Amino acid sequence: MSDNLLRKVEQKFIRDDLPNFKPGDTVKIHIKITEGNKTRIQAFQGIVISRHGNGINKMFTVRKIGAGGVGVERIFPVNAPLIDKIDVIRRGKVRRAKLYYLRSKIGKAAKVRELRTEKKKTK
Amino acid sequence: MIGLLGKKIGMTSVYAEDGRRILVTVLSVGPCKIVQVKTPENDGYYALQLGYETKKPNKVNKPMKGHFKKAGVEPFRKLKEFRIENPDEKFKTGQTLSIDNVFQEGELVDCTGTSKGKGFQGVMKRHGFHGGPKTHGQSDRGRAPGSIGASSYPSRVVKGLSMGGQMGNKIVTVRGLRVVKIMPDDNLLLVKGSVAGSNGGYVVVKKSKKNLR
Questions:
Q1: Which residues on chain B are in Cβ contact (under 8 Å) with A41?
Q2: pLDDT for A2
Q3: Which of A40, A69, B148, B189 is 20 to 30 Å from B136 at the Cα level?
Q4: Which H or E run includes A9?
Q5: For B188-202, how does the pLDDT look when each residue is reduced to its tens digit (9 = 90+)?
Q6: Which DSSP string do the residues of chain B spell out, in sequence order?
Q7: For position B87, what pLDDT does the model report?
Q8: What is the pLDDT of residues B68-118, one digit of tens each?
Q9: Residues of chain A positioned with their CB less than 8 A from the CB of B19
């Protein structure tokens, strides 16, 4: 019973307007940033390397290689209102749920193969 | 200050309007019925006795049965007294108080619960002592409290010295928690921050004196 009540509290904040994405996907996240009283939108593009948590506390980690080859990771709550929208740019073909191994890979080895769904359709 | 009785449901997070994520404790509070109104003429002070959660009538002993009968209410599992400052307010026995009567969003409340029992614990866990050195030839002293005082003078241990003992399972009040949201339909109160006790444990939520500052 108490668990239902918790779900009920969370329900109002859960977003269903965002696309589905999985670890391995390349996504572009448009983040609302408020500076003073102005709001602008900044994009963060990278590979989703993990999804964890549940309910309102569901999070995902996005990794990109920034300037100078420095790896940058950001963790976002899936249901955060500060996310304006998410574009899924590329579906990745991966065999595990957490892609932490990408952290120790450099250059081409840090790439994730693309999931090709069109081929399946023609078959 | 007036308050209500309730239960802790659990913790989760909600988002504020400006997008900030707020960690909240969800409390199921009230509705409580007034079982007794205490007045200076009869009792020497103003107070309300509130009842929370009904109990089977066959589980009530005779003195309490009489007490509930006098108020004309059903038997309650929990009773708690709240002092009231403003005596000209119209409270009468049998009246039901629910969260939207008592609390407002944005105000501060004090939450009292019984903390989770940890049993007999040493000084490191109970009081945050650092323990002894783990190396340099030491043995058996890793979690020891160290010296507990001088020797022949005073020849005793000072009172109140922190030592091992029962930890938790005691009444803990967290003061000045902000009411983030009230959901009157489900009798839910969302307060920012944590409240002592396990999920399902009884809590007392009172209006905070910090509101007055």
A1: none
A2: 65
A3: B148
A4: helix A2-11
A5: 999 999 999 999 999
A6: --EEEEEEEEEEEEE-TTS-EEEEEEEEE--EEEEEEE-TTTTSS-EEEEEEEE--GGGS-HHHHHHHHHHT---EEEEEEEE-S-TTS---TT-EE-HHHH--TT-EEEEEEEPPP-EEE-HHHHH------SSTT--S-TT-----S-STTT-SPPTT---SEEES-SEEEEEEEEEEEEEGGGTEEEEES--SS-TT-EEEEEE-GGGG-
A7: 67
A8: 888 888 899 999 999 887 766 678 888 888 888 888 888 999 999 999 999
A9: 32, 34, 80-82
- Which positions ≥6 away from A34 have C-beta within 8 Å? B18, B19
Q: What average pLDDT score do residues A70-91 get?
A: 90
Contact list in A for residue B14 (CB cut-off 8 A) is 9-10, 12-13, 56
Nearest by CB to B26, from A6, A13, A32: name it. Answer: A6
Q: Please, are residues B8 and B71 in contact by the beta-carbon 8 Å criterion?
A: no
Whether the CB-CB separation of B48 and B91 falls below 8 Å is answered with yes
Can you give the residue ranges of every domain in chain A? 2-104
Q: Tell me the C-alpha distance between B213 and B205, whole Å.
A: 19
Which pLDDT score, from 0 to 100, does residue B1 have? 76
pLDDT 10s digits, A103-115:
888 887 777 777 7
Residue in B with minimal Cα distance to A34? B18
CA nearest to A52, candidates A93, A87, A98: A98
Q: Look at residue A57 and tell me whether its pLDDT is greater than 60.
A: yes
Decide which of 2.30.30.790, 1.20.140.10, 3.40.50.2300, 3.40.50.880 is the CATH code for A2-104: 2.30.30.790
Cβ(B1)–Cβ(B200) under 8 Å?
no
